[in-house]
């Protein structure tokens, strides 16, 4: 169940009730591709850094350790010791990223595993079966994620096929949720809007899938090569045509600035590998922009990454120490940076929710974006 608490312009803050707990939106989903956040971050850490919902990857868990093994072990929640909501993506994006190894047909996609090269077939039914075995809170529909640079005819044909696949996902999910041995019989299904940067195709697709009455609606196929301006333009055109009484999820986005812009355009859910990936490379987010802790200027810097930050890194360690760990290739350095970045994102989402509920989102967004530019101006 999705209940809007407050709106401020197009920005909205809501409560989304699931079988694994209530999610306050807007929310950032912390990405644990193979049932773990990269950078030696445990689910016990996630509980301490304000994580509301974790995202894992259907394709990767199907390849390793195998979704049937996860089911035998009681499902993903039990497997990774996480009692809050989990969203699993459908594998569609991995099929897009494995372009050289795949063949798309009406029944589904034939491709080779990136791990051992073995042949895999995945269609809508297989994706639903895998996600049902994983027993995630929210399953994503199986779609094709065409390149944003594909031509109009290809995108139109691809979107039509994604719609046909969505109906198959819906039917299969209903069947799976009725089986006696299904772990999570209340698994939800989110649809995915596609259409590249063709707003007419996007809007048409949004109208069609909105009629199908699913639990939530994602906007996919962005952050795959188009400009930020093109992405924002798509959101402005599409979000108004998605159901108002269901959550809206922008897949794979993004930077703190991207999130602020998308919230302003009515988006609820986000996920992105940036905070963990950047953290593993010593790049950390602050309210005054991003810092590269490998820089020599932090060698004698006894300050925390950010003054006043409540994350485990800032509460206990200096920039100088974390820089030393990174330079010495000690895993603790990566771990502390990832913990800080995820805490930063989760805290920013908390502030966004509060600003919307106080009707002060535009002032909050303006001051946040101005703050992010401070380091850029200093370094010029």
Automatic annotation (TrEMBL):
Entry's SUPFAM superfamilies?
Answer: tRNA-guanine transglycosylase (SSF51713)
User: What reaction does this enzyme carry out catalytically?
Assistant: 7-aminomethyl-7-carbaguanine + guanosine(34) in tRNA = 7-aminomethyl-7-carbaguanosine(34) in tRNA + guanine
InterPro entries in alphabetical order: ArchSynthase1/Queuine_TRR, TGT, TGT-like_sf, tRNA_ribo_trans-like
CC cofactor note: Binds 1 zinc ion per subunit.
Q: Name one GO biological process term.
A: tRNA queuosine(34) biosynthetic process
Q: In which pathway does it act?
A: tRNA modification; tRNA-queuosine biosynthesis
- Briefly state the protein's biological role: Catalyzes the base-exchange of a guanine (G) residue with the queuine precursor 7-aminomethyl-7-deazaguanine (PreQ1) at position 34 (anticodon wobble position) in tRNAs with GU(N) anticodons (tRNA-Asp, -Asn, -His and -Tyr). Catalysis occurs through a double-displacement mechanism. The nucleophile active site attacks the C1' of nucleotide 34 to detach the guanine base from the RNA, forming a covalent enzyme-RNA intermediate. The proton acceptor active site deprotonates the incoming PreQ1, allowing a nucleophilic attack on the C1' of the ribose to form the product.
Region RNA binding: start-end pairs: 252-258
Q: Name one GO molecular function term.
A: metal ion binding
- Name the UniProt record assigns to this protein: Queuine tRNA-ribosyltransferase
Cofactor(s) this protein requires: Zn(2+)
- Tell me the enzyme class: transferase
Segments forming domain tRNA-guanine(15) transglycosylase-like: 10-371
The entry's keywords: Glycosyltransferase, Metal-binding, Queuosine biosynthesis, Transferase, tRNA processing, Zinc
Q: Where is the active site?
A: 89 (proton acceptor), 271 (nucleophile)
Where does the chain bind Zn(2+)?
309, 311, 314, 340
Q: Which organism is it from?
A: Eubacterium uniforme
């Amino acid at each position: 169940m999705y209940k809007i608490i407050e709106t401020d312009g197009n920005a909205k803050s809501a409560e989304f009730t699931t079988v694994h707990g209530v999610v306050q939106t807007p929310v950032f989903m912390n990405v644990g591709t193979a049932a773990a956040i990269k950078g030696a971050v445990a689910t016990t850490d996630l509980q301490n850094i304000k994580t509301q919902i974790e995202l894992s990857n259907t394709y990767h868990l199907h390849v390793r350790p195998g979704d049937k093994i996860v089911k035998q072990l009681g499902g993903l929640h039990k497997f990774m010791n996480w009692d809050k909501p989990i969203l699993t993506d459908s594998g569609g994006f991995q099929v897009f990223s494995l372009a050289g190894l795949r063949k798309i047909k009406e029944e589904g996609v034939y491709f080779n595993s990136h791990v051992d090269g073995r042949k895999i077939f995945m269609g809508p039914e297989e994706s639903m079966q895998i996600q049902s075995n994983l027993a995630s809170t929210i399953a994503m529909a199986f779609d094709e994620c065409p390149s944003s640079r594909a031509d109009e005819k290809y995108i139109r044909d691809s979107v039509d096929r994604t719609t046909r696949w969505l109906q198959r996902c819906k039917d299969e999910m209903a069947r799976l949720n009725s089986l006696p041995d299904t772990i999570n019989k209340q698994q939800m299904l989110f649809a995915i809007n596609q259409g590249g940067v063709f707003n007419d195709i996007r809007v048409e697709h949004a109208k069609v899938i909105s009629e199908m009455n699913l639990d939530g609606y994602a906007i996919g196929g962005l952050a795959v090569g188009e400009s930020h301006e093109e992405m924002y333009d798509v959101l402005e055109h599409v979000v108004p045509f998605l159901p108002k009484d269901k959550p809206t999820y922008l897949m794979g986005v993004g930077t703190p600035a991207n999130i602020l812009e998308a919230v302003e355009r009515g988006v609820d859910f986000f996920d992105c590998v940036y905070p963990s990936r950047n953290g593993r490379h010593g790049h950390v987010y602050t309210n005054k922009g991003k810092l590269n802790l490998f820089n020599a200027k932090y060698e004698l810097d006894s300050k925390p990454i950010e003054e006043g930050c409540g994350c485990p890194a800032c509460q206990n360690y200096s920039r100088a120490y974390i820089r030393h760990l990174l330079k010495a290739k000690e895993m603790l350095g990566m771990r502390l940076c990832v913990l800080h970045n995820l805490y930063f994102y989760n805290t920013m989402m908390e502030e966004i929710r509060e600003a919307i509920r106080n009707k002060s989102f535009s002032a909050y967004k303006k001051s946040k974006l101005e703050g992010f530019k401070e380091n850029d101006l200093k370094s010029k």
